[in-house]
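Notes from the 1:1 (GR / supervisor)

We went over the backlog. Supervisor wanted to see one worked example end to end before approving the batch request, so GR pasted a single chain during the call. The sequence is below; no edits were made to it. Supervisor asked that the structure be written out right there so they could see what the output format looks like.
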Amino acid sequence: MTPGTSGASAVTTGRRKVAVVGVALADCGRVDEATPYTLHAQAARRALADSGLDRSVIDGLASAGLGTLAPVEVAEYLGLRPTWTDSTSVGGSTWEVMAAHAADAIAAGHANAVLLVYGSTARADIKAGRRTSNLSFGARGPLQFEVPYGHTLIAKYAMAARRHMHEYGTTLEQLADIAVQARANAAHNPDAMYRAPITVDDVLGGPMIADPFTKLHCCIRSDGGCAVLLAAEEYVPDTAKAPVWVLGSGTAVSHTSMSQWDDFTVSPAAVSGRAAFERAGVGPGDVDVAELYDAFTYMTLVTLEDLGFCGKGEGGAFAEKDRLTLGGELPVNTDGGGLSACHPGMRGLFLLVEAVRQLRGEAGEGRQVRKAGGRLPEIAVASGTGGWFCSSGTVVLGRG
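Structure output shown during the call:
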């Protein structure tokens, strides 16, 4: 599918089409002998090589999470002098929001090729004592009314999960099964940090972190990086691989204070997803692969609901019976996700990398999703979540 064939995408209608032309991972997992800048450079070089384009085409850079003047410091390190930049930082959804911004800029002619790049040594830094685990994002502004009472980031997610359980009868077993299926997908990913199978009992019997979340309900902590290169349609004939088109995108913010969150069972993906699908001219039923932010099992469940894959309150039942595995009705987090593959911080860019690889047919033996008759998937969605459901970005991609 190519953009502009249906609907009213602001990215595509009457303007240049935009494609993802290069994706790559830096070293991921346990990376003790690298700096975050090293991982940025690794990912950028590999994504550029994947595209087959020359670095001179890059006139835009999007980066967040590193340096005092991000993305200026990253641009300097990479030897780039971009004329279009974005340093939007809204947590894990940062990269889907940046991809939306970049696609709009390219479509409007404000940039030709934009590199999104990320790298983090979050795990290695803790192991080496260069940083400590953070329980909150700070105690200024609105957060001053919650932090003194021990209201940590994970506690916010745990409260939301409990509310969903109360409202809709969602069970701990259903939430645990999401972690089990993520691990089953990771088993086929040689780059995943954890690949050994787990059971629902393993998840339920683990150490309690924040009720109802035990350890395996929570994302892993890893090192790693990745990059995505988007370019205008006129560059596509010179690329090394078939394009993956940006069909539509949507962004939304919800709250930062829990007291200002209208409904703990609804995430801002309900807004960003609706906009992305409308602009792409497709619906949830057209999606072959879904890459969803999964810092906690509840994030996967509620995002499935809010993107329209099932009704509100039906996420627990929907995720059962291996529906989210590679051979299931809706393969979700096909690399193993943040629960098993990697989670070096703001993981949203990894969702886009995996979505593109699935659409290209590059996911590898055992992990590549196939439709009936062995056909490759045609539509993928990547939906990132930031903060504690504070923000969301959703991007719909289509195979060229």
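Supervisor's comment: The two ends are 6 Å apart (CA to CA).
Batch request approved.
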